[in-house]
Write a structure and sequence with these properties.
This protein is α/β, with parallel strands linked by helices. The protein has one domain (4-266): Vaccinia Virus protein VP39 (Rossmann fold, 3-Layer(aba) Sandwich), CATH 3.40.50.150. The protein has ten helices and seven strands. It has a seven-stranded mixed sheet with strand order 3-2-1-4-5-7-6. Strand 4 (143-149), helix 6 and strand 5 form a beta-alpha-beta unit. Helix 2 (35-44) crosses helix 8.
Length: 267
């Protein structure tokens, strides 16, 4: 889903309109949905990591690049900001051996991530807490690496959120995040280039790769939502079906003008 720590863009498109309560509603619905993961799997095909149960956006390509970019292993601490229901961070914790701290402003998402944790790693290796992108509540230097997938665009103050990442990172740490750039933005809410924002937070770009088939796969998922609105309404209710339809019809037409990147930065 092009939305929050569920990995994506928005159901209202502007960060200032988003609330933790709104995210709670979305997480509650998606956690119990059988249809949305099914549609994501159909849209993303072999690139869909079913165990992660992402509703879209997170692919095997992204997870593989995260492993190489984060550079963490046993004994290290990975902080996942805007972790949502925890899937990508938990998968990466298991794959790398790192301990995981997940932060999200949705208490519903945090509780679901805690519930899912034993399916991925042993007890004692994960911690999930309620917090914000610019105010995680964690001590300085807590992280050997920080992850943030498809959520930075929602921060009301993106430089403040990036400075929080810088504060959390230990010497030699890496920050891996995915985010959209709009070369010719329609309004001030879009980011045309993340590099100046990173520089303002004293972070330097180490690598930047465009996510393959971002627009094509997401558009396939949106098409499936629209084609199956009656089934979605029967499963999740009319308000959630209307939210998904709004996102598909609003964001879909802009996809060809968006570019999605996976970026690795360091202090």
């Amino acid at each position: 889903m092009e939305h929050e720590g569920l990995q994506g863009a928005t159901l209202g498109e502007r960060a200032t309109r988003l609330t933790a309560g709104g995210f709670d509603q979305v997480h509650e619905a998606t956690a119990r949905s059988a249809l949305l993961p099914k549609f994501a799997a159909l849209a993303y095909g072999d690139e869909y990591p079913a165990e992660v149960r992402a509703t879209g956006m997170t692919t095997w390509w992204i997870l593989g690049r995260c492993i190489s970019g984060l550079r963490v292993g046993p004994g290290d601490t990975l902080v996942d900001l805007a972790c949502g229901q925890g899937g990508p961070g938990l998968w990466l914790a298991r794959a790398t051996g790192a301990d995981l701290i997940g932060i999200d402003w949705s208490s519903v998402a945090v509780e679901d991530a805690r519930r899912r944790a034993p399916d991925f790693v042993a007890a004692g290796r994960t911690r999930f807490e309620v917090g914000h992108l610019a105010e995680s509540g964690l001590p300085s230097g807590e992280a050997d690496a920080v992850l943030c997938l498809d959520a930075l665009v929602f921060a009301p103050d993106r430089v403040a959120a990036l400075r929080e990442v810088r504060r959390l990172l230990r010497a030699g740490g890496r920050f891996v995040f995915s985010a959209t750039e709009m070369p010719s933005p329609e309004d001030q809410s879009w980011v045309t280039d993340w590099q100046p924002l990173l520089a303002a937070a004293y972070l330097e770009v180490e690598s930047k790769e465009e996510v393959p088939e971002y627009a094509e796969r997401l558009q396939r998922m949106y098409d499936l939502w629209i084609e199956n609105l009656q089934a979605i309404e029967a499963e999740l209710g009319a308000p959630m079906a209307a939210r998904l339809e709004q996102e598909a019809r609003t964001v879909g037409p802009t996809l060809q003008r968006r570019r999605q990147f996976l970026i690795v930065a360091r202090p």
